[in-house]
Amino acid sequence: MSRDERSRCWRARAFALEGDELASDPWCLYEPGQDTTPAADAAATAARAAVRWSEEARERLSRVPFFIRGRVEQSAQAYASEQGLSEINTEVLEHLRQRAGMGPSHSPMPGPTPGPDR
Fold first, then answer.
1. Residue 5: helix, strand or coil by DSSP?
2. 8 A C-beta contact, residue 89 and residue 54
3. How many distinct structural domains can be found in the chain?
4. 96 lies in a domain?
5. pTM recorded for the entire structure
6. What does the pLDDT read at residue 109?
7. CA 84 to the chain's CA centroid
8. Which of 47, 37, 116, 51 lies closest to 85 in space, CA to CA?
9. What is the pLDDT of residue 40?
10. Are the CB atoms for 56 and 89 separated by under 8 Å?
11. Of 16, 55, 94, 100, which has the fewest CB atoms closer than 10 Å, so is most exposed?
């Protein structure tokens, strides 16, 4: 998939959330005018690596569907770096979830309820 195709694919979320294909996407990490040289990428990666994850946040991240987990991790690390946070905890993940328009998280669904005895 080309970069153009990925761009169009991600614009669908902006349209779904805001009704405007050109609206901002809360999960998008792209910032216009950012330095995208390999040295800048290495510096950004090092800054994100300095951010610790709490055990609870790692557990919560492990419950995110595999196909979006990397994007959630990148977004959380970028947010923590921008905010000068030294740790990503469940409060940070909940904030990002709400900022993305997903609402508060819910406790896991209970298991099957036993049926009536016959």
1. helix
2. yes
3. 1
4. yes
5. 0.50
6. 41
7. 17
8. 51
9. 58
10. yes
11. 55
Residue 21 lies in a domain: no
On whether residue 59 sits in a domain, the answer given is: yes
101: left (phi over 0), alpha (psi -120 to 50) or beta: left
CB 99, CB 24: distance < 8 Å? no
Closest residue by Cα to residue 91 from 78, 105, 101, 102: 105
CATH number at residue 76: 1.10.8.550
Encode the chain (118 residues) as per-residue pLDDT tens digits.
555 555 555 567 777 777 877 777 767 766 666 666 666 566 555 555 678 999 999 999 999 998 989 999 999 999 999 999 999 999 999 999 898 887 766 544 444 445 565 4
**What residue numbers bound the domain in which 60 lies?**
35-102
Question: Where are the extended beta strands (E) located within 1-118?
Answer: 52-53, 87-88
